[in-house]
């Protein structure tokens, strides 16, 4: 029976290693894949990849219960993850309420009690920290640490190779840039969006500014993919982003949140009515006909928005309100088209 269990574990490790080495060399995609597989193989409630950016660790990819903390920033100093980077070893916290090595307040924010942190290095290059966590005390075993250590070399190698590939192909120089930008459109990605949203909310509390989130969902992408192929769908997404980007002011943030959904963060001191007029103008400007090879495609988008502080004061509430309004807008647009 022990042999069967061991074989099963090794088979899982080999399967993940094969999947990682065969994956496309896209840093955000690999970070998401790593967190999902780390969560699954350890039975964790959540997993996160923390990227070192200066004196901070940034949640650049997350799965499970950690997803709601994407974009979170924590100081490297006096953190459990920072200690693992310094020692270059995996560390296990049995109970965050009893372990003096951890940032207890940060653990409470995330909702964890036990965790394993694993520093990822390639030669002398620091790539980041992989963390798996549970709300249960003493959840992990030595086998879980063994599994993650077995995977660490492959994880570090594929991330390093993806970074070097992007550096050659696109002259990009920073892992932080790759981890915070969408490879297809070149704009910010989901983790960067939440990072800027958290920072924006923190900054405007005392300066009298207001903040608006606008979500845009492209209508008809699935039909385009099914009819003309994914090359057409990728072109559709990229053209939408390239039309949108010039309309965004320097202090505002445009990001691809995933699939056909985009997000915009506006920080302003103008009346709410002016912002709604601006958003309608932006939608009018980005919609319209585009040419893909010999095929004409029509960009259409549904939109939803949320205002701080009237619709909420935290990222999760604001996003939920904007998402609800976006799908209501999509429903109304479909109803109008069918009349």
Characterization of the model:
It is a single chain. By secondary structure, the chain is an alpha+beta fold. Helices cover 48% and strands 24% of the residues. It has 11 helices and 12 strands. It has helices at 2-22, 27-42, 80-87, 104-110, 142-170, 175-180, 190-204, 221-228, 230-244, 272-286, 315-338, and strands spanning 46-53, 56-64, 73-75, 91-93, 114-122, 125-134, 210-218, 253-258, 261-268, 288-292, 295-299, 301-308. The strands form 3 sheets. Strands 3-2-1-6-5-4 form a 6-stranded antiparallel beta sheet, sandwiched between helices. Strands 8-9-7-12 form a 4-stranded antiparallel beta sheet, sandwiched between helices. It has a two-stranded antiparallel ribbon with strand order 10-11. Helix 1 runs antiparallel to helix 2 (27-42). Mean pLDDT is 89; it is low at 1-6. It comes from Leptospira montravelensis. InterPro entries: DGC-Regulatory_Protein, GAF, GAF-like_dom_sf, GGDEF_dom, Nucleotide_cyclase, Rev_trsase/Diguanyl_cyclase. This is GGDEF domain-containing protein.
Q: What is the typical, i.e. mean, pLDDT?
A: 89
Give the SSE string.
HHEEEHEHEEHHHEHHEEHEEEH
Count of separate DSSP helical elements: 11
Query: Which secondary-structure class do the elements indicate?
Result: alpha+beta
Number of beta-strand segments: 12
Strand sequence of the main sheet, in spatial order?
3-2-1-6-5-4
Uncertain ranges: 1-6
Shape verdict? globular
Strand content: 15-25%
Overall radius of gyration: 22 Å
- Proportion of helical residues: 40-55%
Major sheet size, sense and barrel closure:
6 strands, antiparallel
Distance separating the two termini: 65 Å
